[in-house]
Amino acid sequence: MSPTNELPFVIAESPIQGLGAFATRFIPAGTRLIEYAGERLTPAAADARYPEREDDRHHTFLFAIDDEFVIDAAVNGNEARFINHSCDPNCDAVIDNARIWIETIRDVVAGEELAYDYAYVLDERHSPAAKRRYPCRCGARTCRGTILAKKR
Q1: 59 backbone dihedrals φ, ψ, rounded to 5°
Q2: How would you list the strands of the sheet with 9-13, edge to edge?
Q3: Looking at the domain 9-117, which fold is it?
Q4: Parallel, antiparallel or unpaired: strands 91-96 and 99-104
Q5: Residue 57: which pLDDT band, with cuts at 50, 70 and 90?
Q6: pLDDT reading at 54 higher than 90
Q7: What is the CA radius of gyration of the chain?
Q8: Where do the DSSP E strands lie in the chain?
Q9: How far apart are CA 104 and CA 35, in angstroms?
């Protein structure tokens, strides 16, 4: 962040999904933008708070730090929760000392939407129904059509 602690982005309507974060100035690669903040929960507490319904589109502000903690940005979260997914991201989520930071992985120009690959892990088979619950609308040439992590 800049010396004034002013964020180098604003939140506005996004063509990807709902609201998004848009650069207000040039941001060089390797810039740590913001911490992904919110309430810390156990995975079990997060699952109880947001039960999965097979026919519903997935949407939460949950971000797993590890097997013990999940951050729920819907509770005491900040602007980081509005950074959308892209299959061709300009940012990455970095876990450092049990905290999640969003950092740029390439130069970002003013007006460009900030995004990282959510790479959502789903243990079940990536069936068409599962992909519909976790859609991607990033519009990238390389879009895989889902926020799900690639199966290995």
Answers
A1: -160, 110
A2: 9-13, 19-23, 113-116, 84-85
A3: Beta-clip-like (2.170.270)
A4: antiparallel
A5: low
A6: no
A7: 15
A8: 9-13, 19-23, 32-35, 39-41, 62-64, 70-72, 84-85, 91-96, 99-104, 113-116
A9: 13
Distance from C-alpha of 147 to C-alpha of 131, rounded to nearest angstrom: 8
Residue 88 has pLDDT above 60, yes or no: yes
Q: Look at the block and give the residue holding tokens 């939140």.
A: 11
Q: Is the distance from CB of 85 to CB of 147 less than 8 angstroms?
A: yes
Tally Cβ neighbours within 10 Å of residue 45.
Answer: 14
- Mean pLDDT, the chain, rounded, equals 90
pLDDT surpasses 60 at 40: yes
Distance CA 69, CA 84 (A): 21
pTM of the predicted structure, to 2 decimals: 0.88
